[in-house]
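Retry 2 of 3 after timeout on previous attempt. Resubmitting structure tokens to design endpoint.
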């Protein structure tokens, strides 16, 4: 993959994004994810509290919304805390069906958008596509809880035995770089899975990593720019009043959806460029 191919593929992806109704797909994906984020997070926090007492809701929510700008994540986290404060023992069981339905619907919106960007229709029967989305949600839940345990739970457990067994790697677990890397693991894994497992198409690591890297890199950049924009220019409270926090979250999800779709279009453009050069 040459520098010339990268730039050509990027501009082709931008053109293809507009030509294939990328803006409309972003709206669909953003709204579906926004509808899924509340029941999914509540279910995840309730499940985590049942599995271990070493995790608190703030730490788990910071892990889930770690890639979001603080100004966007804080209103959503505040509403989640309010819901959890009023919760009862039925939170886990009653929220399960809502989580499966809304979260898998949000994942299915991503599946449709990425499949269309790759210009490869997903020909699997409906039940297999929905089952894949449900498994995607369950695996994401397990991954987030596992990472949270590594970041929060293990240092607590190891600290109990540090005096008895000083060779335990407590310093390693508290290393800031390692913690950031572990916190980014669900995001990286999730983007990779969107390109490979979710769409049902057989794609190698080599064929998808450029688009994944592009999405994650642009995510980091645009999260900073979006924070700057909200802090210095935007005033959603004037237009949306009490819905300002929700609308800023929806706008951020719209941006993330665009980056996911652009990453898939970028990969497809690279594949086509390589095929055309091999034929000449």
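Retry 2 succeeded. Sequence:
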């Amino acid at each position: 993959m040459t520098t010339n191919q990268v730039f050509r593929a990027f501009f082709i992806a931008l053109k293809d994004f507009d030509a294939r109704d990328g803006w409309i797909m972003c709206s669909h994906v953003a709204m579906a994810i926004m509808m899924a984020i509340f029941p999914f997070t509540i279910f995840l926090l309730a499940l985590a509290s049942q599995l271990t007492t070493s995790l608190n809701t703030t730490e788990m929510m910071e892990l889930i919304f770690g890639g979001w700008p603080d100004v966007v994540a804080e209103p959503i986290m505040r509403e989640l805390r309010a819901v959890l404060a009023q919760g009862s023992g039925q939170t886990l069981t009653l929220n399960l069906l809502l989580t499966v339905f809304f979260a898998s619907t949000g994942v299915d919106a991503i599946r449709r958008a990425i499949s269309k960007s790759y210009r490869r229709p997903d020909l699997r029967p409906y039940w297999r596509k929905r089952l894949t989305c449900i498994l995607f949600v369950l695996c994401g839940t397990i991954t987030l809880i596992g990472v949270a345990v590594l970041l929060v739970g293990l240092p607590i457990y190891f600290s109990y035995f540090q005096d008895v067994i000083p060779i335990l790697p407590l310093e390693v677990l508290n290393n800031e770089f390692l913690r950031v890397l572990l916190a980014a693991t669900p995001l990286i894994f999730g983007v990779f899975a969107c390109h490979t497992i979710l769409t049902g198409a057989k794609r190698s690591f080599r064929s998808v990593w450029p688009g994944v890297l592009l999405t994650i890199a642009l995510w980091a950049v645009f999260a900073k720019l979006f924070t700057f924009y909200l802090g210095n220019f935007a005033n959603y409270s004037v237009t949306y009043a009490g819905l300002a926090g929700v609308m800023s979250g929806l706008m951020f999800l719209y941006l993330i959806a665009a980056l996911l779709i652009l990453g898939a279009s970028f990969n497809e453009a690279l594949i086509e460029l390589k095929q055309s050069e091999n034929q000449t």
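Attempt log closed. Residues 126-161 form the longest helix (36 residues).
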